[in-house]
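Methods — Computational structure assignment.
A single polypeptide chain was analysed. Its primary sequence is given first, followed by the predicted tertiary structure written as structure tokens.
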Amino acid sequence: QVQLVESGGGLVQPGGSLRPSCAASGFDFSSVVWSWYRQAPGKPRTLVAHIGHAGDATNYADFVKGRFTISRDNDRNTVYLQMNSLKAEDTAVYYCNGWPNYWGQGIQVTVSS
């Protein structure tokens, strides 16, 4: 059956780093475009980054450009989001998405001193 398991969230101080991951099983991971979204309390879910099938095409929201990097490992069926220089406004629940309808369970990222 289809399963997506996210890990790697947590509490970090401003300026710190985290690397959430999303491990998928039960379908053809390599054929899917993957994205990360985030949702802060009281706000809509927003696209953060996405990555093409081979990992050579990426796109980022302006508010994370230069700080976050999306990557994928088609051998491990896993997509990652390297988050550096974290800010308080990055605090949100982060979701991985395999287009169109594969969603991770969401993980909390909290940036606070």
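Note: Residues 23 and 76 are 8 Å apart (CA to CA).
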